[in-house]
Each structure stands twice: as C-alpha cells, then as structure tokens.
Design brief:
Elements: H1 2-34, H2 40-56, H3 59-68, H4 78-98, H5 104-119, H6 124-160, E1 170-173, E2 180-183, H7 189-224, H8 229-245, H9 248-257, H10 264-283, H11 290-306, H12 312-318, H13 331-336, H14 372-399
Antiparallel strand pairs: 1-2
Helix pairs in contact: 1-2, 1-4, 1-7, 1-8, 1-9, 1-10, 2-7, 2-8, 3-7, 4-5, 4-7, 4-14, 5-7, 5-14, 6-10, 6-11, 7-8, 7-10, 10-11
C-alpha cells in the first residue's frame, strides 16, 4: 500500500514539475527564441541544466523551508504530502484555464499552511517572515526597475540595441592548423556580445526558476521522509526539463512573439531584476512569486521611463497637480533601436534627451506597456489562488477522516 501511495506521490510531483518547466522556460528563454538567437531545443537544454544548478544550490534551502519549517516534518504523512501536491497541481490547472500564471510557491505555502492550521501546529513566526518578504519583494522590484527606467534605460538602448545580421553568428575557420570558431561574415562584435548576453540572462532566469520552484514539486515528499533532499531536487528538475522539451515549445512561441509592447531590452531588464530578487529570496530559503515580482518590475520600468518627461524639481513645484507624464509603452525605443533581432539601426551616442526635456509625444503610445485593470487582475488572481488553496487545504485536513 505504501509503495502504491509513494508511486502516486511521485507521479503528482512529476506532473507539478512538468508544468513548472512548461511555464518557466517560456518566461526565461522566450525573448531569446523570439529573437532567433537560440533554438527551442537549445533553450530547453539550457533550462534543464541551469534549473538543476539552481535547485541543487539555493533550491535546497527552499525545500527545507517548505518541507519542515512551516509545519513539523511529522505532519507530512504520505497521504498528506500527496494532497498538498494535488493542491499545487490544481493551481497550475486553474491558472491555465483563466489564462493567468499562478504562483506555485505561494500556493504551496498556502496548502501547507492549511495543513498546519488544521493540525494546530503552524509555525506563525516562519509564516510571518515569508509573508513579509512577499509584501516587500515586489516593491523592491518596482523601485529598482523604476530607477533603471528613469535614469538608465535610454543609455541602455544606446549600448545594447543591435541589428541582427544575415547568416550564421559563428563559423568554423579551417584556414589554420587547428580549426577554431570565429565570427560569421556579417557578424559584428557588438552583435555577438549582445546575443551572448541575451542567452546568459535566460540562463540566469532558469537558475532562479530552479532555485525557487524545484521545492514546489517535491518538498512535501521530502518532508515525509520518503525522498531525500538531493533526490527530490533531481526529480523536480528532471520533470522541469521534461516540460521544457515538450509543452514549453508553445509557451516560448507565445512569449517570444508577444513582445511588441515589451521590447526585448525591456524584457531583459525585467528578467535580470526579477531573477535577482527571486535568487536572493531563495538563498534565504523564502519561496517567492516570480510572476508578481516580474509584473511589478514591468510596471516600475514603464513608470520610471514615463517620468523622464519631468524633473524632480518640477514634480515638487507641481504640488500634486498633474504633470506631463504618459505611462506609455517602451515601444518608442523598440522601433528606432531594437535589441538583438530587430530591423532598425543602432542609435548614435547621446541620441536621448535629458530628463525634463522629453515630452509625452516623444514616447509614442503605440500600445500601453501595462494595462492597470489587467495588472490588477493578475495580482488579484495571484493572491486569491493561494487563498483558495489555504482554505481548501484546511477544510480537507480538518474534516475529511482519511487525513
């Protein structure tokens, strides 16, 4: 009986990891695939490798938190572990139905918290620390991105805007005694460095995804003592890799082709900020919501970019009155100065105007970078799904006799 239950638990864990791999790979490598700097197969391979690296380093701390610090390890019977994993898998399913990615980390914490509430052994101090970080981390991502958008984004456009050349990025030079790779006939050093940077940022985000999300697939089984920490991480990351090579192909298409409102450069800024915040929280053992942090990073970047139309002194003098600020898209820079894969030219040094001299018409509203109502819906659903998981978990573990 135990072996059969363990087999079911492992299958549910694989299902959770499979779905995590499907969604996380698109987020990490969608920009690179959309810019045709890497193939889908290459993206899946890198996702698997770096998710495993993140899982085996910072990810073990998150496993320990979810598997024994929110509630005692003794609470994780095999049946309870399967139930918790089921709630996480259900959240992934629900997010696919409504079209909004659910935070598996927040849902996992909610399901485990429901178990602790039902048994009366919830570690309130640990929960308080986790929730505090959930409130602080999106604000940190917002302000970091806002500062980048206001003070550094135009300069980044000058530095990293690249037009993709025809032909191979690298070719094999056979003119010498030993063949060696060299730049393609049309490839510039700027293009090569920019392309490598895009791929490296995808790898960094894959690392952060593995560090934060591997625990969501296996922490309950690790807490039950049925699976060791390292074996659990290997199982989770293997499942993430399986999702990366299969269902992620569609999500990479979606993310890679839906960047008209979010230029690749902006997407990479958001990726670096959100991956850094998530990696830091994973290092502390705190399960984090990648999607909420990334969403607030997008909002912050757009808001910071828009506020370049006024100086701080003008803002103070306005005394709260409306100033000429348009929370428009970053697409103004996308057309004139695309990142890797674009068709425009590279801007000249100093093309951008100083803060206060830009007008709202200098930032065309080709489309809004973010829609407030959509942003609110995402944040609402990101919080309501874990809430549902918490309540459902409590009711199941409190009133269903088998648990």
């Amino acid at each position: 009986m135990v072996s059969a239950l363990l087999a079911i638990g492992l299958l549910v864990a694989v299902f959770v990891g499979f779905n995590i791999g499907g969604s996380s790979t698109g987020v990490a490598f969608g920009p690179a695939v959309g810019a045709k700097t890497i193939s889908k197969f290459g993206a899946a391979a890198l996702m698997t490798i770096f998710a495993l690296l993140g899982g085996l380093t910072f990810g073990t701390e998150v496993v320990q938190t979810l598997g024994g610090e929110i509630v005692p390890k003794s609470s994780f019977t095999l049946v309870a572990s399967i139930a918790v994993l089921f709630f996480i898998g259900f959240a992934l399913f629900l997010s696919n139905v409504v079209g909004v990615p659910a935070s598996t980390s927040m849902t996992a914490v909610g399901a485990i918290a429901g178990l602790g509430l039902a048994q009366g052994n919830l570690n309130w101090a640990e929960m308080g620390e986790i929730v505090s970080w959930w409130l602080v981390s999106p604000l940190v991502a917002f302000w970091i991105s806002a500062v980048i958008g206001r003070y550094f984004y135009p300069r980044l456009v000058e530095w990293f805007a690249i037009t993709q050349s025809e032909g191979s990025l690298l070719v094999l030079d056979r003119s010498g005694l030993v063949p060696h790779p060299t730049l393609g006939p049309e490839t510039t050093r700027r293009e090569f460095v920019g392309t490598v940077l895009v791929i490296m940022i995808g790898c960094y985000q894959a690392f952060a995804a593995g560090a934060s999300n591997a625990a969501n697939a296996v922490a309950p089984l690790v807490g039950s003592g049925q699976v060791g920490v390292i074996n659990g991480v290997l199982l989770a990351c293997g499942s993430i890799g399986l999702g990366a090579f299969t269902i992620a192909r569609r999500t990479m298409d979606t993310v890679g082709n839906d960047l008209t409102d979010l230029p690749i450069l902006a997407a990479l800024v958001v990726a670096v900020v959100s991956a850094s915040v998530v990696s830091f929280l994973s290092f502390l053992g705190v399960p984090a919501s990648f999607v909420i942090i990334a969403t607030m990073s997008i909002v912050g970047l757009g808001w910071g970019r828009a506020t370049r139309t006024v100086t701080l002194s003008e803002t103070v003098k306005s005394k709260g009155k409306d100033v000429d600020v348009s929370v428009g898209a970053l697409t103004a820079d996308a057309e004139d100065a695309p990142t890797v894969g674009g068709e425009g030219g590279t801007p000249s040094e100093g093309d951008h105007k100083p803060i206060g001299e830009e007008k709202s018409e200098d930032i065309p509203k080709a489309a809004d970078l973010f829609e407030p109502s959509t942003t609110a819906r995402i944040v609402f659903l990101q919080n309501i799904v874990p809430g549902i998981a918490t309540v459902a978990s409590y009711l199941i573990f409190r009133f269903v006799p088998i648990f």
